[in-house]
Amino acid sequence: MLQNRVALVTGSTGGIGLGIARALAAQGCHVMLNGFGDRESIERTRAELERAYGVRVMHHGANLLHPTEIYEMIEWTCAQLGAIDILVNNAGIQYIAPVHEFPRDKWDAILATNLSAAFHTIQHTLPFMRRNGWGRIINLASVHGLVASVNKAAYVAAKHGLVGLTRVVALETAGSGITCNAICPGWVRTSLVETQIQARATAMVTDLEQAARSLLAEKQPSQQFVQVEQVAQLAVFLCADAAAQITGAALPMDGGWTAQ
Asked: Which domains does the chain carry?
């Protein structure tokens, strides 16, 4: 379905990003991974994906706080793998504190990583997609792009902004063969959420599984975590011809969170 398409997935050395990268590779995409981590572990992952799916997989360690590094990553991806067909903006960071105590440097870093980086990747990738008359942009926005939670001012602001950016890009590219959509997962048991579970376990003086159940009970009616593979398969669907008229959507995958 996506044979020989070129995909760039930010924040893809683990978690949701790696799940999406794996799912795209399984469909025949050549993939540029991006993110931090142990070099040997990243190389093992890269090589395993190549072996498993018979596609080219590379890694670029661009720090998304710096637009220059983002542009260099995109240029390098195009030089090594070809023009980018699929862009997945997945990278994100989190910090939790009330507004009046929120560190300014954390605000700046979260807005830069979770929102501004997506603007820079889209701006620099769109010309290639327009030239080819086909493209898929998928932004991982989170349920917090649709609703708010306390103590997450920067994250909620960035994710709401990402949904807004998604809609503008969708309007500007409508009818061009390019789509732009946002996936809005609820609780997925990634490292970001695991940190919150651990903090809750400490506060409740309980074990991690009880803390996880408490976290789900508070927001997610299904009482189940969204699975990385489920998010990845939705991303694959959004790249398919069947989804060619889905654009500008913010798609909840949240176990009923936003239905309440």
From this structure: 6-186+227-249 (3.40.50.720), 187-225 (no CATH)
